[in-house]
Amino acid sequence: MPTNNSIEQIIEEGLCIGCGLCASVFPSQVQMQLSPSGHLRPSESTALNSGQNTHLQSFCPGVVQSGMPSDKVLNPENIDPTWGAIETIVKAHSGDAKIRHKAATGGALTAISQYLLESGQVDGILQVAGGGLKAYFGHSQLSQTSDDVIKGSGSIYASTAPLENLLKTLDTGINIALVAKPCDISAVRLLGKKDPRIDRQIKALLTPVCGGFFPPFAMDNFLKSVGADEDDVQSVSYRGEGCPGPTIVRFKNGETITKTYLDFWGTDSSQWYMPWRCRICPDGSGEAADIVSGDTWPNCEPTLEMMENDLGTNVVIGRTSRGAEIINGALKANYLNIEGDAEPKDLDYWQPHLVRKKTAADARYAGMRAAGQMGLSTLDLRTDSLKKCINESDYQQELVGTTRRIKIGKHRDDFSEESSQSS
Question: In the 3-class helix/strand/coil scheme, how is the chain assigned residue by residue?
């Protein structure tokens, strides 16, 4: 039997997101590998000892996810009950029209990354670029030029280990900015409590608002639906070249297949395929990050008309004084252009699915524990107070529903029946 909160148990309970931080922290014992289910997962060549497992539990996003630590919050009055610390919030896009068009939405994170590099505030941007162990995966990339940043822009809706090389990069002594998912950023923020290099050398933690990504079986289904065989695929561009832009499958023989964003994801967000860990995520809005950027579509679902005419605009949030300072600097230097004002309540309109997950998180974790699992812990995410936003009947429904889904195996990496499409 796996030991309590061990890597093996975290994977077995469907809570591993494959971020790669455990492989970075324990490089001689843990390596990221392709699992039988098709996910990137940590594999132990030598089992972690009890002390190492205790250390793992302090940062692993399969055990705990955090918001902003209180010592990083400039003004406690700026903590929104739903969305966390917000020092500044605007609607903006890249000041470069080509980047705005190429990037996933309005190019805000790409523009900010360029600003940090070209102003000399960092030596590199640790980001995710396309490719890896599979053609449609992502991989960790250290970008040290603006061209590299631009080439790596765009969302990757597939298995990726963005933190696999984090500590190796910090070992070189350079200063970086990190662009990764909210759960990844949480892990790094928590690791920083014990590793001083995190605060010293990572000058900014950047994240997109995240709703999840495609598990391997769903990507396999998509490729089959467009008549593609995985072995023939050269690369997949998930979005960009518009807002959100098309999904483009490029083949080794030079041919391409182009589908719309809605062809890829579907028209109803409640039916999206995604890994179990994404379904029970307590925070897709990056509360532990310095800067967050997200889509501004009503209900987070673009219409065909919007996809044809939207030039791309991000909501950009500075959660710390450092984040707000960087955003203001990027605006003054014209890396970012203001599109309009924004306020926290707008996020309810743009990201309602994240509101639902945040308020249901406590009930779902109670349901996981009722099924005999360890559940997920949260820090600085106000999970206890947010659970009061749903009534007792809905709370029990979420709890019981989560337990039922676990009992039939929906949490498992290898669960791939069509029924996993339902929430």
Answer: CCCCCCHHHHHHCCCCCCCCHHHHHCCCCEEEEECCCCCEEEEECCCCCHHHHHHHHCCCCCCEEECCCHHHCCCHHHEECCCEECCEEEEEEECCHHHHHHCCCCCHHHHHHHHHHHCCCCCEEEEEEECCCCCCCEEEEEECCHHHHHHCCCCCCCCCCCCCCHHHHHHCCCCEEEECCHHHHHHHHHHCCCCCHHHHHEEEEEEECCCCCCCHHHHHHHHHHCCCCHHHEEEEECCCCCCCCCEEEEECCCCEEEECHHHHHCCCHHHCCCCHHHHCCCCCCCCCCCEEEECCCHHHCCCHHHHHHCCCCEEEEECCHHHHHHHHHHHHCCCEEEEEECCHHHHHHHCHHHHHHHHHHHHHHHHHHHCCCCCCEEECCCHHHHHHHCCHHHHHHHHHHHHHHHHCCCCCCCCCCHHHHCC
pLDDT band at 226, cuts 50/70/90?
confident
- pTM of structure: 0.95
pLDDT digits (tens, 9 = 90+) for 352-383: 999 999 999 999 999 999 999 999 999 999 99
> What domains lie within the chain, and their CATH numbers?
70-214+271-352 (3.40.640)
Q: Inter-axis angle of helices 352-370 and 392-407, to 10 degrees?
A: 60
Cα–Cα distance for residue pair 288/84, rounded to 1 Å: 9
pLDDT value at position 420?
44
- Residue in 202, 131, 132 with CA at minimum distance from that of residue 169: 202
Q: Which residues contact 25 (CB under 8 A, 6 or more apart)?
A: 55, 56, 59, 167, 191
Residue 343 burial by Cβ neighbours in a 10 Å radius (0-12, 13-18, 19+): exposed
